[in-house]
């Protein structure tokens, strides 16, 4: 089985599935697995297509138009604003919980939950 002085290898189905399973786990990258098992990266790509595992294929999205670029920048700004709002909300909740702990202790309640029930605040 030689073609232009190269050995043509045949791999068993379980071996192919084992490589794809290891790739799925993410312990090794595709190139690391190829070096480890002496497999060509194109061969692994063929297996990915054969077993319809497109989630394992390294795909890239190319953005070319100015509209797409400006839209992505706008979405990134929106994400940052939402992160800040979420952080503020979390901090406000922490401050409220701290106030309630101090108030519960000062007013003689056994727990913050007991105080929240008294004040009709959702736990």
UniProtKB/TrEMBL annotation:
What is a GO molecular function of this protein? Answer: DNA binding
| Keywords from the UniProt entry | Coiled coil
Its GO biological process annotations read:
DNA transposition
Sections of the chain in a coiled coil: 65-92
- Entry-linked Pfam families: HTH_Tnp_1
Q: What protein name does the entry list?
A: Transposase
Q: What is the lineage of its organism?
A: Bacteria, Pseudomonadati, Bacteroidota, Flavobacteriia, Flavobacteriales
């Amino acid at each position: 089985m030689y073609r232009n002085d190269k050995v043509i290898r045949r791999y068993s189905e379980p071996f192919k599935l084992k490589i794809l399973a290891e790739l799925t786990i993410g312990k090794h990258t595709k190139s690391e697995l190829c070096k480890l098992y002496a497999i060509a990266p194109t061969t692994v790509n063929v297996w990915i297509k054969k077993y319809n595992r497109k989630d394992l294929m390294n795909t890239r999205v190319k953005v070319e138009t100015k509209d797409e670029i400006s839209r992505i920048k706008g979405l990134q700004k929106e994400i940052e604003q939402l992160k800040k709002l979420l952080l503020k909300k979390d901090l406000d909740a922490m401050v409220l919980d701290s106030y309630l702990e101090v108030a519960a202790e000062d007013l003689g309640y056994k727990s913050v939950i007991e105080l929240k029930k008294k004040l009709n605040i959702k736990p």
